[in-house]
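Supplementary Data S3. Sequence and structure tokens for construct A.
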Amino acid sequence: MKDLLSKGMITAVAALAITLFVHPAPVSAADFDLTIWHTNLTAGQTGTAKITVHTETSGSNTVVTFTYVQGSGRPGLGIDEIGIQTTAGFFALPSGWSDTGAGNEDGFGNFGLTAKKPGGNDLVGITFTLNGIVSPTQFVAHVRFGTGCSGWVSNTGSNDFSSTPLPECGGTTVPEPSSILLLGSGLVALGVFGRRWLRY
């Protein structure tokens, strides 16, 4: 009888071990949209452009992935700086990226972890692995749009659009109604006086 109980217990323990090995702990994942811009671009130029951030656990670490989504905004050339609000350190960085420690990111406040890739041309699936299981919720990224034209975007803070973008961004502001009225009045006056001048 004891032998049967012992065999039964061994079988149960073995089955439990196999179950735990085949079915590891569930993955914890979250998604964030970075849509708050601080930039030389106007609201019309950024349009619906954003960066999505996906976080998930991987073993004993946390994986954070940044992706630029153009939407109705400008085409991006690359993401070259990121910030993550966490006290964890980097376990692994994408090729060409360097850990730049904690830092203040252009009006969005201090981030515990930042990284740079000067001249970076990656836009999709830029993946950083953090030490330990953490749950960051605040992120920032710097997007290059062209020579001298770039912008920061985050999911924290408030939009700070420019009313007059840099010439390097290639954009022109939409004229205000009063400017259009003034231009129209000038053209009408020019037409009236021009006709009188031609008569004489």
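Construct B, processed identically:
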Amino acid sequence: MAAPRDALLRVDDRGGEPACVDGVDAQQVERDALGRLGADARESTQLASCALIVAALLLAAVGLYSVTAYATEQRTREIGLRIALGAQARQIWWLVTRSATRQLVVGLSVGIAGAIGLGQLLRGLLIGTSATDPVTLAAVTALLALVTFVASVIPARRAIRIDPIATLRSE
């Protein structure tokens, strides 16, 4: 085992570079090894990035759900009165999802402005995309819109099923 290692470590007389021994170029071996290490580091970084993205989406979904559910719970009497006065399920659905949609619009406005601003500052660190990549911004917007819709489904369904008589008697 020591013989191949010693052969690779021999220094060529011409310039102090590792010698090419039996068709093996020591510099190429080193480049290949460093390339593999770089690829492993990139894969680890991508995996960590994906985990952070999923965690951020879950946090956004739980936050939107919580705020929407709380707001719906606070408006139970109003929703019950609207149902008693003849509001349709679609109107109640829109009433509940409108607040989540407002949160989405405000969040996206601040988020996209921040992403573009910070992206310009961190332009050198972005690889394979630009700070103002419209496809990325559109994909994030669509994904967050979907998360907002899913987060508002349960509170909206709960609001539609409110019994107006029980709600009005509870006060």
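The chain has one domain: 2-170. The first strand starts at residue 20 and ends at 21.
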